[in-house]
């Protein structure tokens, strides 16, 4: 999960035009316009962007908590649990267990929104997978990301994850 989070974070800065945070994270006015039905664009709607940010943030919290937890029996310990006190690790474990419900709720809400759009005649899954959708001709089309940039982002994500799993040793050690 950590690798995927790192990949998505990087892809949010260098990926396709619709994947970039700068293109879909909008303010309250855009959300209001969307709710009034006066928003048009390609990619995430302003409300969909909130969902993406909430899911990303909640998943990041869950992963971070898991990195520092240790189970009650001491059989499993996150790779960074040695960096925190036992009390902190115990607290992180408790929050980690409860936070799963928050994450599950956000996932259910996200899937429900996709299904509601589908029932209303707008498929979101196809365009999400293929990057192709019928759009208003006055709206600027999406610019796809480059495959080699995605590979670099993935390699960075894998590298950072492996470093953390190794206990995040100092560089040069």
UniProtKB/TrEMBL annotation:
UniProt keyword list: Cell membrane, Membrane, Transmembrane, Transmembrane helix
Protein name: Cytochrome b/b6 domain-containing protein
Domain Cytochrome b561 bacterial/Ni-hydrogenase: 2-131
Cell compartments where the protein resides: Cell membrane
Gene3D superfamilies: Transmembrane di-heme cytochromes, Chain C
UniProt KW Membrane keyword: yes
Keyword Membrane annotated: yes
Membrane topology listed for this record: Multi-pass membrane protein
Residue ranges crossing the lipid bilayer per the database entry: 45-68, 98-119, 147-165
Superkingdom to which the source organism belongs: Bacteria
